Amino acid sequence: MIGTGFGDQASSLMLARLGSSMRKDIAARSQEVSTGVVSDRNAAFGGDHARLATLESAHARTQAHLQAARESATRLEVTQLALSEMGEGLSDLRNGLFLALQSGTSNNLDQASDAARAQFSQVVGMLNTQIAGRSLFAGTRTDGPALVDADTMLEQLRDAISGTADSQDAATAIADWFAPGGGFDAESYLGDNPPGAALTLGAGYSIAQDTTARDPAFRQTLAGLAMAALASELPASNSREGRAHMVGAAAGTLSTAIESLTGAAEALGRDEARVAVAESAAQAELATLDRARVALLEADPYEAAARLEETMSRLEALLVITARSSRLSLTGYLR
Predict the structure, then answer these.
(1) Cβ atoms of 218 and 83 closer than 8 Å
(2) 159: number of Cβ within 10 Å
């Protein structure tokens, strides 16, 4: 028996390798034709990927800015809604307190206290709002509520006014309790300080992240509500005049709180406007970077199609040669 010679084996191996290379080339050219993107970045850039790396780095950074802007927009929207609902509730309650003072009856004053307690609980609930499991008004400690629950806070306040002599002292004790450094900070606020640095949104825009339940507007809101809520529980004489004085102090405090909430809402509105501009700028920047990246990686469709056709023709010719070589080898073997 005559075996296949070394020359025939080498020729077959060479043809096989050449066919494999052509098939890979055809796959690459087909990908370029279908996607419009170069298949061999290293060859396209001549080994220099610096420009693409710069584009992709800028794209990642801008994408992060866009995400921050969108999250900020949601946070500001929810905060604005809370301020709006809070302000409307306070306005209605304040008007009810004034009506109770005008009537002067014990029954109306007690009803005003009941309404204040309900509003106090609602406000505490708003200040404990969470978005996607993150507390909105707790500063950097976002994994829990900003405040103790309303019943616990009212109990803390009862202890704070238990030794007061009259309604005036009780109102002062409540105001002091909610002042910075008072019992509210020590016993009721469960959050932490706000982030020290502003949140960068790109394109020269940034916003502060400093809204917490310890803001003056919220302290005043809770203080005014607490005065009205506890007016019917004064530890001293608990006279009608004492309750009326306490309700009057509450109405005045709530008037100040409503003004503060309005100012806070206006500041949030300015932040919302900055975030909207920053979001638009980030979207435009991403579109520009995407176009630059496409241009950098774009394959010439005509060149890719021509190279695909050329390689397919070469592969067809190679297959013919391979077939002929196989027939010659078989003839030699049969001899």
Answers:
(1) no
(2) 11
Residues 6+ apart with CB under 8 A from 302: none
Backbone angles phi, psi at 299, to 5 degrees: -95, 140
Q: Taking each helix axis from N to C terminus, what angle separates 216-229 and 106-127, rounded to the nearest 10 degrees? A: 150
Q: Name the one residue in this structure whose structure tokens are 């910075």.
A: 180
The predicted-structure confidence for 192-211, as pLDDT tens digits, reads as follows 998 877 888 888 888 888 89
Q: Which two tokens stand for residue 216?
A: 């003056």
Enter the DSSP assignment of 200.
E
Report residue 177 as tokens. 């309790």
pTM over cut 0.85: no
Tokens of 226: 């607490």
| Partners of residue 135 on adjacent β-strands | 130
What does the block give as tokens for 240? 């009608």
Alpha-carbon span 332 to 326, nearest angstrom: 10
Dist. CA 196–CA 146, nearest whole Å: 18
Q: Do 239 and 165 form a contact (C-beta atoms < 8 A)?
A: no
Helix (H, G, I), strand (E, B) or coil at 94: helix
pLDDT digits (tens, 9 = 90+) for 57-80: 999 999 999 999 999 999 999 999
Reading the block at residue 162, the tokens are: 């238990």
The 3 state secondary structure assigned to 68-107 is HHHHHHHHHHHHHHHHHHHHHHHHHHHHHHHHHHHHCCHH
The C-alpha atoms of residue 245 and residue 229 are separated, in whole angstroms, by 13
Cα-based torsion angle of the residue sequence 170, 259, 111, 177 in order, rounded to the nearest 10 degrees: -20
